[in-house]
Amino acid sequence: MSQRTLVLLKPDTVRRGLVGEVVSRFEAKGLGIVAMELRTIDGDQADRHYAEHVERDFYPPLRAFVTSGPLVAMVVEGDEAIEVVRALNGATDGRKAAPGTIRGDLSLSNRENLVHGSDSPESAEREIGLWFPNL
User: Fold this and answer.
1) pTM of structure
2) 40-72 residue pLDDT tens
3) Who's near 4: CB < 8 A, 6+ residues apart?
4) Catalytic pick among 23, 116, 128, 131
């Protein structure tokens, strides 16, 4: 089943010069890039994106991080894209993520963990609408 999902390459990915490597992993898996844009977001955009986390204790540092510099927003598509992206990304905590995953190979952090991928079809639809309203 072909799906679309949102992927964010967070500010640490951009800052560390890993955008090409991370994008190539999605492409090598067979996912297609529908849209991709480098942008810097403000707190309001972060709050809309992470709406379910705004009241949680971990959110203020996450908000500060995600607004700290440019990131790459992408829509990718392919067979079971949501599940495939999440498997490629690996566990949220890069210190615990399996080798071979983006986070397992390239991250040593729970917060600065390089990538975001929508976690369900409903989240993908909502997030794509926030980031790419013309799709």
Assistant:
1) 0.95
2) 999 999 999 999 999 999 999 999 999 999 999
3) 34, 75, 76, 77, 81, 124, 128, 135
4) 116
